[in-house]
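ingest -> validate -> predict -> emit
validate: passed (alphabet ok, no gaps, 355 aa)
predict: started
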Amino acid sequence: MTRKLIAARNACQIAIIARFRPWPYFGSMRLPYLVPHDFALILAPMAGVSEPPFRQISRRMGADVVLSEFLSSEAIRRRIRNTLEGAEFEECERPIGIQIYGAEPTAMAEATALITAHYKPEFIDINFGCPVKKVVRRNGGSGCLREPQLITDIIRACVGATHLPVTVKTRSGWNDDMRDPVGIALRMQDAGAKAFTLHARTRTQMYSGKANWDEIARVVEALDIPVIGNGDVQSPEDVVRMRDHTKAAGVMVGRGAFGNPWLFRDARALLEGRQKPEPPTPAERFELALTHARLALRLQGDSRKTVVEFRKHFGWYTKGLHGSSELRQRLFQVESVAEAEQIFVQYLAPLAQVA
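emit:
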């Protein structure tokens, strides 16, 4: 290798190291995968939402990391086609984690090994937080919180099946009687988890009440691995409050991003001390909604089924607009993206005349 090539390589390495330097004030630990900012903005894994189209839109709008929908380890090990398709992603989505769930350590290990070998994400994430009955009744998701030893066994099995970092997402406990976020976090860290995301509610709370950010702060103090805060992040200002309150390494945004991927852009501006950008105009909302819809057609199939499943996104993108109730009623009936585009044109026509 010539001196010029060596110098160029070293300069590149120095630039990368500088780019990913530790957060100077909050002292956040570095995540086990490279991200472009000291405080990471992460799109949460959400069934029916965190699919490739929305992941790509979120990345464009400023999300540093995205995760897949949660996938059944049993379905993965049995090579169920629909589930395996859920692990697919495009290069522009990196860094990405594939999230899996299950209650059988052997199945979880097999799924981890398969995902590692065939899909090669940046990390494997284990779901210990899903509160949905059909998952919990088989002891998956937050159901595992009732059996601490099972948590340990699952994490160790997954860690032993991959060279990738294994991370976890969980809740503060099964119920108030079993609420012990620090104890749960320490157990998961000791089992080999490389990062820990806490949705600071119990399973029995579901999505009611308020997420207890004090619990996230206590977990940050207790762990030697990076902690990501989750729960009640509905605005860019919430992101800043989460960082300041918990000193976490990042924030995971879920329902707050529905129809509002601008949240990532605006949060980054506030985190960097810049003025928050102006909110998107109706025309800008519609433009991104259509871009998102066309992406869905490309990635998920140009079919009526794709359009029908996308209707919920049209509803979210138009939330809060003048006459949004009537607008959503029309959008929930569309059979094609072209039909939605025509509805948007009709909505904007009076606004254009006023302007």
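The two ends are 62 Å apart (CA to CA).
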